[in-house]
Design goal:
The protein is mainly beta. The protein folds into five domains: 1-58, no CATH class; 60-176, OB fold (Dihydrolipoamide Acetyltransferase, E2P), CATH 2.40.50.140; 177-276, Nucleic acid-binding proteins (OB fold (Dihydrolipoamide Acetyltransferase, E2P), Beta Barrel); 285-351, OB fold (Dihydrolipoamide Acetyltransferase, E2P); 364-462, OB fold (Dihydrolipoamide Acetyltransferase, E2P) (Beta Barrel), CATH 2.40.50. The chain has helices at residues 3-14, 20-34, 41-51, 125-128, 173-176; strands at residues 76-85, 89-92, 98-107, 112-118, 135-145, 151-155, 160-163, 178-179, 190-206, 212-221, 227-233, 243-245, 249-260, 263-268, 273-276, 285-294, 300-305, 311-316, 328-332, 335-338, 340-343, 348-351, 374-376, 379-393, 399-408, 413-419, 434-444, 450-462. The strands form four sheets. An eight-stranded mixed beta sheet has the order 12-20-21-18-17-16-19-22, with no helix packed on it. Strands 1-3-4-6-5 form a five-stranded mixed β-barrel. Helix 1 (3-14) runs parallel beside helix 3 and helix 2 packs across helix 3 (41-51). The longest helix is centred in the first third of the chain and has 15 residues, at 20-34. The protein is elongated and about 90 Å long.
Length: 464
C-alpha cells in the first residue's frame, strides 16, 4: 500500500459517510482552488482532511519534496536549491517586543516555496555564505500557511540549515533563466534576463497603508527587441553599481509577471536578487548640451546627446558644467544609470572642441512618428487648445497639480501634460502660439492614445 492509500484509509475510517470517490472529488476541487504547480494529490489530501476536521498523522518521509508540504507539518526535512535571500528586517509585536525576520525562496525540480527565518535564525553565520543556486538542506522546519493560503517553511529555534554542495537533479539557476520576452502573465519565482533599455529610476512613496516605501524602476529589452517595465519594491540605488550604462545585461532572480493597465510587467521585492554584468574600464561620455534648465532646488538639469544620438538626462548638483547650450563636454560622471547622469564635485568635466555631434534641430520629430516609452528632444507644434490647470487626487489621497494642453503639426495632434512642478512650464502658453518642446517623454494614456509628459529636463521655446 502506498503512503497516499494509507492516508486515504485513515481518513475514510474516521469519515465512514464518505466514499473514496467523494474524497478524490474534494482533492480535485482543492487542487483547482489552490492553482496549478502547488499540490500533489497527497498534499491536497492533508488539506481536505483539515477541512473535514480529521487528523491523518502519518510519519512523513525523512526528506520530502516542496509539493508535498502542507500546513501544520512539523520537523520537515528537505534538500533544495536557493533562488534568493532577502536582507534581515526588524519588526515590532503588538506587545512592543522586537523580532527579526529574513525571507528566502528555495526550489526543487517541481515547485518553490518561501522560507521564513525567525529571530536568531535570521542572523546565523551560514546565511552570509549562501548565494543563489546553492544546494542546502533544511532540517526540522515547520509549515504554516501565508495570507494567500500557500504553505511557507519556517525556521525556528529547533531548525537548522546546512549548505551541502552535493550533486543534484534540481535545475541550476542557469537552466531556469529565461529571456524577458518569454515571460507570461501569472508566472512567479522567475529568473529572467534582459538588456537595460533607458533610465534606471529610484523613487520614494507612501503606500495605501501609510507606510514609506522605495522602488527601482527600469525597462529591460528582450531578444525580440521589445522592452518590458520592471518594478522592484523596497530596493534602492545601493543595490546597483554607480555606473550602469544603457545596454548592460541584468538578470533578476525571484520575480513575477503581472499585467498592469493592459501592459505585462515584471515585479520584484526586497528578496529579488540582481545580477548586473559589470564592464571593464568605463569610457568618458562626450555629449552636446541641447538644453539647460534649473529645477526647484536650483540644480542644473541638462539634456545632452552623443555621437550615436543617445539622449542623456544630466543633473549637475555642483554646477560643474559652466557651459552654454551648444557646447560639447567630456564627462566622467559619479553616477550613470542607463541614460541618467549625475555630475558632482567628484566628477570630471571639461569643454572640448568637437563638432561631430547632433544639434537640437537635427533631432526634430513629427507628431505622427512619436511612439510610447521613448524620450524626444525636439517636437515643433502649434497650440490648438490653451493649457488648463486642475488638481488631481492620487490613490494615496495626495492632491497634485496637472496642466495639459493640445498641440499639433502637419501630421497629427497630441496632448501635452505637466504634473506637479512641471505644470508651471505651460502657464505662459497661449492658443495659436508656435512652440518647440524638448526633453519630453511619450507615454500611453487613456484608451491607448499616446501623450507627451513634461520631465524635469523639459523646456518650451516660443517660436514667435
Amino acid at each position: 500500500m502506498t503512503e497516499f492509500d494509507s492516508l486515504m484509509s485513515k481518513l475514510l475510517e474516521q469519515k465512514p459517510d464518505l466514499s473514496r470517490g467523494d474524497v478524490e472529488a474534494l482533492i480535485t476541487q482543492k487542487k483547482e482552488k489552490i492553482g496549478a504547480g502547488y499540490l500533489t494529490d497527497q498534499g491536497a489530501l492533508f488539506l481536505v482532511a483539515s477541512d473535514l476536521g480529521v487528523t491523518i498523522s502519518e510519519p512523513i518521509k525523512s526528506e520530502i519534496s516542496i509539493k508535498d508540504l502542507y500546513s501544520g507539518a512539523k520537523e520537515v526535512t528537505l534538500q533544495t536549491r536557493v533562488l534568493n535571500v532577502s536582507p534581515k528586517k526588524q519588526f515590532s509585536r503588538k506587545d512592543g517586543s522586537q523580532f527579526l525576520l529574513r525571507n528566502m525562496t528555495v526550489y526543487d525540480s517541481e515547485s518553490s516555496v518561501t522560507v521564513k527565518l525567525w529571530d536568531e535564525k535570521a542572523d546565523i553565520p551560514e546565511i552570509a555564505n549562501i548565494k543563489p543556486g546553492d544546494m542546502i538542506k533544511i532540517i526540522k522546519a515547520y509549515v504554516k500557511s501565508d495570507l494567500n493560503g500557500q504553505p511557507t517553511l519556517n525556521i525556528g529555534s529547533g531548525s537548522t540549515i546546512e549548505r551541502t554542495g552535493t550533486e543534484s537533479s534540481i535545475p541550476s539557476i542557469e537552466s531556469l533563466t529565461k529571456d524577458i520576452s518569454d515571460v507570461k502573465d501569472g508566472e512567479t519565482n522567475l529568473v529572467v534576463s534582459g538588456i537595460i533599455d533607458g533610465n534606471i529610476n529610484y523613487s520614494e512613496f507612501t503606500n495605501f497603508r501609510g507606510s514609506q516605501g522605495t522602488a527601482l524602476r527600469f525597462r529591460l529589452r528582450g531578444k525580440d527587441g521589445r522592452s518590458m517595465r520592471v518594478v522592484l519594491l523596497n530596493k534602492n540605488s545601493s543595490y546597483i553599481p554607480k555606473i550602469v550604462p544603457t545596454g548592460t545585461k541584468i538578470r533578476l532572480l525571484g520575480v513575477k509577471a503581472k499585467t498592469n493597465q493592459q501592459e505585462l510587467e515584471v515585479h520584484g521585492n526586497e528578496s529579488t536578487a540582481l545580477e548586473i554584468a559589470t564592464r571593464g574600464e568605463v569610457e568618458p561620455i562626450v555629449f552636446r548640451v541641447l538644453t539647460a534648465v534649473k529645477n526647484e532646488n536650483g540644480q542644473k538639469m541638462i539634456l545632452g546627446v552623443d555621437r550615436e544620438r543617445q539622449i542623456y538626462n544630466i543633473i549637475d548638483v555642483a554646477d560643474s558644467t559652466k557651459s552654454i547650450v551648444g557646447d560639447v563636454l567630456e564627462c566622467m560622471p559619479s553616477k550613470l544609470y542607463g541614460n541618467n547622469v549625475t555630475i558632482d564635485s567628484e566628477s570630471f568635466v571639461r569643454k572640448i572642441d568637437f563638432d561631430d555631434l547632433p544639434h537640437l534641430s537635427d533631432l526634430r520629430i513629427k507628431i505622427a512618428d512619436i511612439k510610447p516609452d521613448s524620450d524626444y528632444c525636439c517636437v515643433e507644434a502649434i497650440i490648438l487648445k490653451a493649457p488648463e490647470r486642475r488638481n488631481v487626487q492620487t490613490k494615496t489621497g495626495e492632491t497634485i497639480t496637472l496642466s495639459e494642453m493640445f498641440v499639433g503639426d502637419d501630421t497629427a495632434q497630441i496632448w501635452i501634460k505637466g504634473w506637479r512642478n512641471q505644470a508651471r512650464l505651460l502657464d505662459e502658453c497661449t492658443i495659436g502660439e508656435k512652440i518647440m518642446l524638448s526633453g519630453v517623454l511619450a507615454k500611453s494614456g487613456l484608451e491607448g492614445r499616446t501623450e507627451l509628459s513634461l520631465t524635469p529636463y523639459s523646456s518650451i521655446i516660443r517660436k514667435g
